[in-house]
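Protein modeling request. Please complete all fields; requests missing the sequence field cannot be processed.
Requester role: graduate student
Desired output: 3D structure, token encoding
Chains: 1
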Amino acid sequence: MDEKTKVSTDRRLARVEGQVAGLRRMVAEDRYCIDILTQLAAVRSALDQVGAELVTSHVQTCVLGHSAGKGHACAQAMTEEDLIDEVRTALSRLIRS
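Delivered output (97 residues):
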């Protein structure tokens, strides 16, 4: 993961952390359930955006970057089939419910 992605991911996760703290306050204050559910959906969406950014970074640095010599230190030599499996694995982990 490049430095720009690290900073962006950290910023997004800090925002999610604040949203979760807000959710906890809403529950403690016995706020209207629909309002809590709305905020919960916003947190889930924010986490999905973090996941999409991480998958993109993974493809750039570990999948495509490997062949260009710009890969992550953990990236390994892979065949085309292995690279496709790696992308499939990353996507399946992101969309796992």
